[in-house]
Design goal:
Helices cover 21% and strands 37% of the residues. By secondary structure, it is of the alpha+beta class. The radius of gyration is 22 Å and the shape is globular.
């Protein structure tokens, strides 16, 4: 009976892991090193750009910096408000942006989770970056210097295989050396709970044998 229950608990934990992983994309934590620009006034942006045929939404939370900041009015389909959670979507709008004016400290950090609805034609793109509010020049190394857009990170969600650039999967991700992006699978706490239940059962069984 004990072994049967242990096996069932393990199966439940694995099922929860698979279900949660397939239900949504992994949450990612972003850290941007701005120590070389400490004290500088800058505009930080998040953009979601796309055709909205199968809308994609990027949800952003946990924005923090050791500098100071003020959120500016958003453009397009942006819901929520900082310092809470905001969501940028290309549903009904091609260009969607949240700007923040910031006096930079040593770092910027936040979490984001995107939907991954692959669309035909123009891909959905999520990007962020830092630029000079007066000259609009980028402050940190751009992943696309030719366009000089100050983009430090780009997540592109491409269309059908016939429309994807050669060598690209349906989701392409690029980021500069100033940016650290760490995946945080949402299912990890559920998996840990399942393993904890199995461990507790094993401990109880050993205690019973010892007694």
């Amino acid at each position: 009976m004990q072994k049967t229950f242990q096996a069932a608990a393990a199966a439940v934990s694995i099922s929860l892991l698979c279900a949660a992983h397939s239900a949504q994309a992994a949450t990612k934590t972003v850290t941007i090193d701005t120590s070389s620009l400490a004290g500088t006034n800058a505009d930080f942006f998040w953009d979601v750009i796309g055709n909205g045929v199968l809308p994609n939404t990027v949800t952003i939370s946990g924005f923090a910096t050791d500098g100071s900041w003020t959120a500016l009015p958003p453009t397009g389909n942006v819901t929520g408000s900082l310092p809470g959670t905001i969501a940028l979507s290309d549903a009904g709008n091609f260009f969607n942006e949240q700007l923040i004016n910031v006096t930079l400290g040593n770092f910027l950090t936040f979490k984001f989770v995107p939907t991954l609805n692959v669309t035909v034609g123009t891909p959905t793109g999520f990007s962020f970056g830092l630029f000079d509010p007066t000259t609009f020049d980028p402050y940190l190394a751009d992943i696309d210097p030719a366009n000089n857009q100050g983009v430090l990170y780009l997540l592109s969600i491409y269309g059908s295989p016939s429309t994807e650039p050669s060598g690209k999967s349906s989701v392409a991700e690029l980021f500069s050396s100033a940016v650290t992006v760490t995946p945080l699978p949402a299912a990890l706490p559920l998996f840990a709970t399942g393993l904890g239940a199995v461990g507790l059962l094993s401990w109880r069984k050993k205690r019973k044998v010892a007694a």
